[in-house]
Amino acid sequence: MIDVRLDPDQLRELAALVAEALAERSDRQALLPADQAGEVLNLPPSWLLAQARRGAIPHHRFGHHVRFIPAEILAWDAERNGRGQSRTNRTKSRSESDTK
């Protein structure tokens, strides 16, 4: 076991660094319920939950709760729709070209 002694300033600096790292990690790993994930993908929450039950979409189960990580579902959507573009980006691109 290593014995490390920090003075109060070092301890505050270490605490700030740990808090910053945890905040960054939690932002990247935000867990969304189906209704919020549905808003991200422009899909009905019931459809997302059905896909999760089938194991067809990346999801995380906590008891009977199902959660989605935005980066995972966006990557899944881009792969599913081809060309590396998500449904939401393609929808925006289409509507922008319609206005021109």
Q: Any overview of this molecule?
A:
The chain has 100 residues and is mainly α. The protein has one domain: Arc Repressor Mutant, subunit A, CATH 1.10.10. 63% of the residues lie in helices and 6% in strands. The chain contains 5 helices and 2 strands; from the N terminus they run αααββαα. It has a two-stranded antiparallel sheet with strand order 1-2. Strand 1 and strand 2 form a beta hairpin. Helix 2 crosses helix 3. The chain is elongated, with a radius of gyration of 20 Å. It starts with 7 loop residues before the first helix and ends with a helix. The model has no long low-confidence stretch (mean pLDDT 80).
Strand order of the largest sheet: 1-2
Uncertain ranges: none
Q: Give the H and E element order.
A: HHHEEHH
Under CATH at level 1, the class stands as Mainly Alpha
Distance between the termini: 67 Å
Derived from helix and strand composition plus strand pairing, the structural class reads mainly alpha
Percentage of residues in DSSP E strands:
5-15%
Total strands: 2
Query: Which oligomeric form is depicted?
Result: single chain
The CATH topology is Arc Repressor Mutant, subunit A
In CATH, the architecture is: Orthogonal Bundle
Alpha carbon gyration radius: 20 Å
Biggest pleated sheet: 2 strands, antiparallel
Number of domains: 1
Identify the overall geometry: elongated
Mean pLDDT: 80
Query: Percent range for helical residues?
Result: 55-70%
Number of helices: 5
